[in-house]
Write a structure and sequence with these properties.
Structural class: alpha+beta
Strand order of the largest sheet: 1-2-3-4
InterPro entries: DUF4446
Pfam families: DUF4446
Keywords: Coiled coil, Membrane, Transmembrane, Transmembrane helix
Order of helices and strands: HHHEEEEH
Distance between the termini: 94 Å
Number of helices: 4
Protein name: DUF4446 family protein
Radius of gyration: 42 Å
Amino acid sequence: MSDLLQMIKSNDVYVISVMALLLLIELIWILALNARFSSFLKGYRRVINGRTGEDLEDILSSYLGKVEGNVEKITEFEERMKQIEKRTELALQKVGIVRYNAFSEMGSDQSFSIALLDLNDNGFVITGIFGRDDTVTYAKPIENGTSRYPLSAEEIQAIDRARKRGI
């Protein structure tokens, strides 16, 4: 034992230097742990959000319930969105208009053909022919871009314009 004390006394500068170095390393370690703990504490306070008397398990359970509820709502919204998308396929959303002069003795382009189609090119074409004495209006159904009734050149042009304006 006396040999150990004698060795420490003879090398006291080295012993103190090593102890100081260990103390410095320990201080750096404590500061790093303190920084990590502060970060954890900040996150914990954000989760707790002013609640008192509740433990972390209750809070996380509450959050988990809210997340599960949101997942159910998202699934419901996805289903509703699919239904709406199916409905919009049937909505008239493509329009083609052609104005023309049906009779050469008439003034301006007062006659017209309007094609209204859905995404599947189904719908109808309305044609209004303006004459000197009267105006006649026709409507023809369109299925897959064609009609079972004969179409005029202007009606075909209106259908083509509507088909090109598709989404």
